[in-house]
Design goal:
Strands 1-3-2 form a three-stranded mixed β-sheet, sandwiched between helices. Helices cover 60% and strands 5% of the residues. It folds into two domains: 158 residues, no CATH class; 132 residues, no CATH class.
């Protein structure tokens, strides 16, 4: 009788938990194994159906809002097809190593989250981080449809890049923290923001990663060796160049080249005499300049408007104007 009662209680408990259990997505490693077992060697259309079923459907909110940014990109479906078609051709060489990369990411997030709290005690002990697969980025902060910031790491892209997770993870953890505590979201790429905001945001995230992953040269922290080779004597000239563009909008469909020339990678140079993505290097110099006057916690607490004002002040100082 007692055993029977216990069995009934256990059955009721499991029934009450069933919706929650089914609502939680399986690990991305499990999902990838299922997807690839169905997709390997198949035509693209079948691969895409398997991807939809195993990878995206259990994580619909983050794929819609963060990966594809459906709310902002009217051409997301066409871009998605192009990106997925390319990525599926890479999976035969990557498939065996993806589970290990996922485990490495999990370990790095756990380790760096503890270190991060030594700099920012009010940071989450367990930040809202998700590990997934994505062909269009390696790591990205975003905002879900419910307004909550989230940080996504794309294990497959990071594996392809042979990324140093000790550098990438704290950099991205700061972007998430900054979104939560200062309202600077999407790495500073926000509606109505000027180019000074992503300059500040990326510089600050790079500065923080240098504190949490000491012993790395600037080129390593900036994830691009030639950025570490920009001579310091060029700083006034580069600051002056940026000041000429500083009030351009980050999101400008008429002139997207203004953002690209400072922050995008491309095979051909956007500007003469400096590498692509020089905005990341200049942003780091801005934060180093500001640190002469302000504490790290103070800088990280500035609102978007305050950050843009202080960035302009630092640029003018560095340019000699």
């Amino acid at each position: 009788m007692v055993a029977s009662s216990r069995a009934r209680v256990l059955a009721l408990l499991l029934a009450s938990l069933a919706p929650a259990l089914h609502a939680q997505a399986p690990s991305i490693s499990t999902s990838f194994t299922r997807f690839w077992s169905d997709a390997e060697g198949k035509p693209f259309e079948q691969q895409q159906q398997a991807w939809d079923h195993d990878i995206e459907t259990p994580r619909r909110d983050i794929y819609d809002a963060v990966v594809w940014e459906k709310q902002h990109d009217p051409y997301w479906q066409a871009r998605r097809q192009i990106w997925l078609r390319r990525r599926f051709t890479r999976y035969p060489a990557l498939a065996a190593d993806i589970p290990a990369e996922v485990r490495s990411l999990q370990d790095a997030v756990a380790k760096q989250s503890v270190r991060f709290k030594s700099l920012f005690p009010d940071a989450d002990t367990h930040p809202p981080v998700t590990i997934l697969l994505a062909p269009n980025f390696d790591a990205k902060s975003g905002v879900l449809a419910n307004g909550k910031p989230v940080l996504a790491f794309a294990a497959d892209t990071l594996l392809m890049e042979h990324a140093n997770l000790d550098i990438v993870v704290p950099h991205e953890l700061f972007h998430l923290y900054h979104a939560q505590h200062a309202g600077i979201r999407n790495d500073g790429v926000m509606p109505d923001a000027e180019l000074t905001l992503p300059l500040f945001e990326e510089g600050l995230a790079t500065y923080v990663s240098g504190l949490l992953a000491p012993g790395h040269a600037d080129g390593e922290l900036l994830l691009q060796d030639n950025l570490g080779h920009i001579p310091q004597e060029k700083l006034p000239e580069i600051a002056q160049r940026f000041l000429a563009d500083a009030h351009a909008k980050v999101i400008d469909v008429q002139h997207p080249e203004m953002f690209s020339r400072w922050f995008n990678a491309a095979p051909k140079p956007y500007q003469s005499g400096v590498p692509n993505r020089t905005g990341y290097w200049l942003g780091l110099q801005v934060i180093r300049q500001l640190r002469h006057r302000y504490s790290l916690v103070e800088i990280a607490s500035w609102s978007p408007a305050q950050a843009q004002t202080h960035t302009l002040d630092a640029l003018r100082e560095m340019s000699g104007k």
